[in-house]
Specification:
Chain B: It comes from Patella caerulea (Rayed Mediterranean limpet). The complex is a heterodimer of chains A (about 425) and B (about 400). Chain A is α/β, with parallel strands linked by helices and about 425 residues long. Chain A is built from 10 helices and 10 strands. Helices cover about 50% and strands about 15% of the residues of chain A. The chains are: A alpha/beta (about 425), B alpha/beta (about 400). Strand 1 (about 20) of chain A pairs parallel with strand 4 of chain B, so a sheet runs across the interface.
Chain lengths: ~425, ~400
């Protein structure tokens, strides 16, 4: 145990390590901090929700009354076995208890009708729904914008009563525990343990534990304590899991003492006698040492699992988007937006590029055709000019010819004319 | 198949029952305390004050240890916050103490933005916690809390009143952190001056609506002390790392030619009161107020900023879903818009280019027409030439005929 403790301390130092460890040279006063915490917690008061599940007649109400030494269930407020209706219900009772200045608001949730019908398929569903509803309420309250004090009605512990058959777990027991071990702290109890002899009880416990291990059911494990002495005491009690309990509402005179017990012709079964049953173990572990831990495990493990299940973004393929769990959804959305903006910018740049390229291409083509057309126009013009020149040449030539001929003709004509004139004179 | 009918409280009011014996849940506070002690505590304290006013010395004196801090100079451009974390242990209680110092506060010529760095730091710590709280997979109970639990504001011992920068800074901080003003270097003020100074300071705080931290008076065990202390605020303190032998003990003190100021002497200064109040009596309350009031205020503002509200009566997961859907559709819309603008641009450019092409064709057509005209003219000219040549040839032939005839006649 010493090494274990040292290891734990070293681990803690390492966790907080990297910072400077300072030695105090005198009185500072923060050793009083635990007292401050103590005072504040007493002032605040405590609350605890306990759920009891089991077939009717297993002694659930009696056990609760014995645990809290008060008449939670009485003729006025009957226990679950007296309130069975046709369907399984989940009922809650709230009581305020006070002990030595410490106030406890105890909420007991019971399930009349559980396992009592002929067909018990899905009789655990109302219970699962109830537990989930409480988690949902807490989640909603925790997520409000304006939150002033979040009431904690989540089920902190579920006592599951196993009938003392002596053989093993019933299929209903296994089904129930398998479905609820991820949602709530389950503490299995062997009810009406005064029907089992110590050997039968030992064997029964062994078979229950092996069946629990076989079906991989996670029942609540009482954690180890730091203090060595305490740890030894607790180990003795922890080894009695699952607790075989006997409850009683009556106080009997047994050998001069007043004890809670059940009087039989053959003797008195004392509730608070560790040799007769494990009631003391249950009470001490449940109430005196681990009540706070039950609440913490509910808050840190079961509730967080529920919350995770509710909020995790499951994609269309049923899987969770990688990397989405380490950030809250809003940062995630902001990141997604950033990524998207980048992607869009890139896309925009690409489209811009393609656009520019196409425009350049077209412009080039246009230019080419312009140049082409220009060239052709030039060619045609040149062709025409050539033709024009040729024509002009021909014209000139023709004019020349014509001139020549005309002048030749005119001379000839003149000669003819003069000859004619002469002829005329002759005649 | 069992139909489900969930939850019906048997009584609407919870009954108070009497116990007939010792159940044992009175150990619940102890269980809680044991868990807290096992986990260790953390405390984050901020010291705001001008350079040289004695912040580091006060931290050393308050926590009775030497934090090895180096004194800073006066010529820093702006206010920065430096934090140091220490692991302290007293009897079986471990505490992670985080001291944050404002370096450069009050040194600049223009001090208008001095408080900004501080508010930013506080907000960053709140934001980090909020982020952790909003995560899907979170570990809040293991989270190293760096939110500031207390802010010691060091007032210079002028003896008259608060400086303008004090009022501005404290006003900005009073809704974000527990502000505890202290009069620093109180060994320069006499008792009468101190009384007047304290009254003046409190008056000014009230006039300016600055809500400093009040020690809680709702717990009977400490209500009396706390009320009395509330009347002594602000504490006038003296800090010292040096020890002087008084009587047969070594005490923390400052030695002057005219006498020795003993830090832990309640007649000399209020240091003991400060230590008692902050550490020994109300540390847990400081932590609680930070979480329950200042952090909640910040959270509320931040969430409202992000668009959450309580009026929709929807669960958190539904709100997240809605936001996510909106977010996705926003992104899609943006994408669409971008594509659209591109399509329009492409169309425009295409139009431009088409017009240019058309112009070119028109031009070319014009040229073609011109060319055709000229060709026609040329053809006409040619035809004329041909005609004249023909006419000429005819004349030639005719003339020749005539001349041959004439010749014949002769």
């Amino acid at each position: 145990m010493d090494n274990c403790e040292k290891e734990k301390r070293d681990e803690r130092e390492k966790k907080h390590g990297g910072d400077t460890h300072k030695e105090l040279e005198g009185y500072v006063g923060f050793a009083n901090l635990p007292n401050q915490v103590y005072r504040k917690s007493v002032k605040r008061g405590f609350e605890f929700t306990l759920m009891v599940v089991g077939e009717s007649g297993l002694g659930k109400s009696t056990l609760i009354n014995s645990l809290f030494l008060t008449d939670l269930y009485s003729s006025e407020f009957p226990g679950p076995s007296h309130r069975i209706k046709k369907t399984v219900k989940v009922d809650t009772t709230q009581v305020m208890l006070k002990e030595n200045g410490v106030q406890l608001k105890l909420t007991t949730t019971d399930t009349p009708g559980f396992g009592d019908a002929v067909d018990n398929s899905n009789c655990w569903q109302p219970i699962i729904d109830y537990i989930d509803n409480k988690y949902e309420d807490y989640l909603t309250a925790e997520s409000r914008v304006n939150r002033t004090g979040i009431p904690d009605n989540r089920v902190h512990c579920c006592l599951y009563f196993i009938a003392p058959t002596g053989h093993g777990l019933k299929p209903l027991d296994v089904e129930f525990m398998k479905r609820l071990h991820d949602k709530v702290n389950i503490i299995p109890l062997i009810a009406k343990a005064d029907t089992l002899t110590p050997e039968e009880c030992r064997d029964f416990k062994k078979s229950i534990l092996s069946e629990i291990a076989e079906h991989k059911i996670k029942i609540y494990e009482f954690p180890y304590c730091e203090d060595e002495e305490e740890s030894k005491i607790q180990k003795k009690l922890r080894d009695r899991v699952p607790f075989a309990v006997v409850g009683s509402n009556r106080v009997i005179d047994s050998g001069g003492k007043k004890v809670r017990g059940r009087m039989y012709p053959w003797g008195v079964v004392e509730v608070e006698n560790l040799e007769h049953n494990d009631f003391i173990a249950l009470r001490n572990m449940l109430i005196r040492t681990h009540m706070q831990d039950l609440k913490d495990v509910t808050n840190n493990v079961h509730y967080e699992n529920y919350r995770y299940g509710k909020l995790a973004p499951v994609q269309s393929d049923g899987k969770i988007k990688p990397g989405s769990l380490t950030k809250d959804p809003l940062t995630q959305m902001a990141e997604e937006k950033r990524d998207h903006d980048l992607k869009m910018k890139k896309m925009e740049a690409e489209m811009e590029q393609v656009f520019e390229m196409k425009v350049k291409e077209k412009k080039n083509k246009l230019k080419e055709s312009e140049v082409d057309l220009q060239k052709r126009a030039e060619q045609m013009k040149k062709g025409l000019e050539q033709q024009q020149k040729e024509l002009d040449d021909r014209w000139r030539q023709f004019e020349k010819e014509k001139q020549e001929w005309e002048s030749a003709n005119d001379r000839h004509k003149d000669i003819l004319d003069s000859a004619k004139k002469e002829k005329k004179r002759l005649f | 198949m069992a139909t489900t009918e969930v939850e019906r409280t048997l009584n609407h009011l919870s009954r108070t029952l009497n116990l007939t014996g010792h159940v044992g849940f009175d150990s619940l506070p102890d269980q809680l305390v044991n868990k807290s002690v096992a986990q260790g505590f953390c405390f984050n304290i901020l010291c705001v004050g001008e350079t040289g006013i004695g912040k580091s010395t006060m931290m050393d004196t308050l926590f009775n240890t030497n934090f090895d801090s180096t004194p800073s100079s006066h010529d820093l451009q702006d206010v920065k916050l430096k934090s140091h974390t220490y692991d302290l242990r007293e009897s079986n209680v471990r505490m992670k103490l985080n001291c944050v110092d404002t370096v450069g506060f009050g040194d600049q010529i223009n001090k208008e933005d001095s408080w900004k760095a501080i508010v930013e730091y506080i907000d960053t710590q709140f934001d980090a916690y909020l982020q952790e709280e909003l995560k899907i997979k979170r570990s809040i109970h293991n989270y190293q809390d760096r939110r500031l639990h207390a802010c010691l504001y060091f007032i210079a011992p002028t003896g008259h009143s608060l400086k303008a920068i004090d009022l501005v800074t404290m006003k900005k901080l009073d809704s974000k952190v527990n502000v505890i003003p202290v009069i620093a270097k109180a060994d320069t003020i006499t008792k009468t001056e101190l009384h007047k100074f304290k009254t003046k300071i409190m008056q000014e705080l009230v006039t300016n609506g600055i809500k400093i931290y009040q020690f809680p008076t709702d717990d009977e065990t400490v209500a009396e002390t706390n009320t009395a202390m509330n009347g002594v605020l602000p504490f006038a303190i003296v800090g010292s790392n040096d020890e002087v032998k008084i009587g047969n003990k070594m005490v923390k003190a400052r030695q002057y030619p005219w006498g020795t100021v003993q830090v832990e002497n309640e007649n000399h200064c209020d240091f003991v009161k400060l230590r008692e109040m902050i550490i020994r009596t109300n540390m847990e309350d400081l932590r609680e107020t930070t979480h329950k009031r200042h952090y909640e205020l910040y959270r509320r503002h931040k969430l409202e900023e992000m668009g959450f509200s309580d009026s929709d009566a929807k669960s958190l997961s539904e709100t997240y879903e809605i936001k996510r859907q909106q977010h996705v559709s926003d992104l899609q819309k943006k994408e669409e818009e971008m594509r659209q603008t591109f399509v329009i641009r492409v169309k425009e450019k295409e139009g431009e280019l088409k017009d240019a092409e058309k112009d070119l064709h028109v031009r070319f057509d014009g040229l073609k027409k011109q060319h055709a005209d000229e060709k026609r003219k040329l053809e006409d000219s040619k035809k004329r030439l041909e005609e004249e040549i023909n006419a000429f040839n005819q004349r030639k032939v005719a003339a020749q005929q005539a001349s041959t005839l004439g010749k014949k006649k002769k």
